[in-house]
Design a protein that fits this description.
The chain is built from 6 helices and 31 strands. 31% of the residues are buried. Helix 1 runs antiparallel to helix 3. Helix content is 19%, strand content 46%. It has 438 residues and is an alpha/beta fold. The chain is flat, with a radius of gyration of 29 Å.
């Protein structure tokens, strides 16, 4: 019996493949391919309907195509269609009802679906008492922008925006919103306070806050939904954001950065830098001391680190260059590139290739990969002791080496150019390539 095919089954397969590819592109590049692919979900019920129509024609019994779709395919397509219709229609209905119903409470990030317009701008000044070493600023919804000020005064410009509240509700609510400053010991806290009686309306107001903060003190910034941009801080900086991009220009002290779902871009940190991101890219230009980076889903690119580097990732590529101290890299899935690292290097990678180019070999290297290949470029006159094992793969070298064949794979034990620091390479499934730099 000739087996027919299902148009909706083919369409569902292509749709799911597209969603998977789009999700990986979203995570690695910070773009919106996932949203674009999901817009094609209406094609699935169309193909499903064609299947049911064509399955009943006389030609189907002769040619075997197309056939009636299987039950699980129909169920999956119905669920996807229901989810797509819900995501499309519910925001439109609620947007209309919001204009009619007073006091409607949206989810905390729902205001971001609607166009925002400026409704009021305020200017505030906060004189810092003596003994203040830290200024802490908290915002809920909106942008938070900071640059360096002078003297011991914090100046703030708050731009309040809304796109969903009726004017009469807005006027009474705005009168009760305040940017408050309070000293608690050595910490001066600045926070946008909303009235407790109508706390459910706070998500419908966004506040873009621009601050000038004097140098010589620690700056702590916190935001929930919206970007954080720091132009310059003379002192230490701590930044935490739940949903929004973080951009940092120049910090003369240490910096600690936490972000959930967006990119982190950092210019120049004179001290130590610790950055943690759940899902999003990390881009770093210069770190004067040590760098600690942790990223679950997203790429890391570091241009120059004068101290040590510790980089831990779960899924994403890493590109690290010009490191003056030790390098320790751990990654589950992704490509890793290291260039011009002058200190010891330790790398543990589960799945992905490792490419290293070094201008000198004065410290040991310990490189381990489970699935992937290692490409190592070293100066042609460098002296080092090579200990390499490829369990299921080959070893290719432009240096003169003593090769040992095993039952599976190859091993090398050689002193290159008279020997020197230990270069230990272990690959379970993959190849090892050693090249000479000019």
């Amino acid at each position: 019996m000739q087996r027919g095919f299902s148009l909706s089954g083919i369409g569902l397969g292509l749709f799911l493949i597209g969603l998977g590819i789009a999700y990986m592109m979203d995570v690695s590049s910070g773009t919106h391919f996932l949203t674009a692919v999901f817009r094609f979900y209406p094609a699935l019920p169309i193909l499903l309907g064609l299947d049911f129509i064509l399955a009943g024609t006389p030609q189907n019994r002769i040619t075997g195509a197309p056939m009636r779709p299987e039950g699980w395919i129909t169920t999956v397509i119905i669920l996807i269609t229901f989810g797509g219709l819900t995501a499309t229609l519910v925001p439109r209905v609620l947007d209309h009802e919001l204009k009619q119903i007073e006091g409607y409470a949206f989810p905390s990030d729902f205001h971001m679906r609607f166009p925002q317009k400026t409704i009021e701008t305020r200017d505030d000044k906060f004189i810092l008492p003596s003994g203040i070493t830290t200024v802490r600023v908290e915002n809920g919804f909106g942008e938070l922008r900071v640059t360096m000020g002078t003297h011991s005064i914090v100046t703030a410009t708050t731009e309040l925006k809304s796109g969903s509240m009726r004017r009469r509700d807005l006027d009474s609510y705005l009168q009760q919103i305040q940017l408050l400053g309070e000293a608690q010991g050595s910490v001066y806290s600045i926070k946008l306070a909303h009235p407790d009686t109508k706390a459910h309306l706070s998500s419908l107001i966004t506040a873009d806050i621009d601050l000038e903060i004097p140098g010589g003190i620690t700056v702590e910034l916190s935001n929930s939904f919206g970007g954080i941009k720091v132009t310059e801080v003379h002192g230490n900086l701590n930044v935490k954001n739940s949903g929004g991009r973080i951009e940092i220009g120049k910090v003369t002290g240490d910096a600690t950065v936490h972000n959930q779902f967006a990119q982190v871009s950092i210019g120049e940190i004179s001290g130590n830098l610790s950055v943690t991101v759940s899902s999003g890219q990390i881009k770093i230009n210069h770190v004067g001391k040590n760098l600690i980076s942790r990223n679950d889903f997203g790429n890391l690119k570091a241009g120059e680190v004068l101290g040590d580097v510790t980089a831990v990732g779960k899924s994403g590529n890493m590109e690290i260059a010009n490191v003056g101290g030790k390098v320790k890299v751990e990654n589950n899935f992704g490509q890793v590139q290291l260039k011009n690292c002058r200190g010891p290097v330790t790398a543990d990678i589960s799945t992905g290739d490792l490419t290293i180019a070094m201008n000198q070999v004065k410290s040991p290297l310990d490189l381990n990969i489970t699935f992937g290949s290692i490409n190592l470029s070293l100066p042609k006159n460098a002296g080092f002791s090579l200990n390499a094992d490829a369990s299921f793969g080959s070893i290719n070298s432009e240096f003169d080496i003593n090769r040992y064949k095993k039952t599976s794979g190859e091993s090398v034990r050689s002193d290159i150019n008279g020997g020197g620091p230990l270069v230990k390479i272990t690959v379970q499934n993959g190849s090892i390539r050693l090249k000479k730099n000019s």
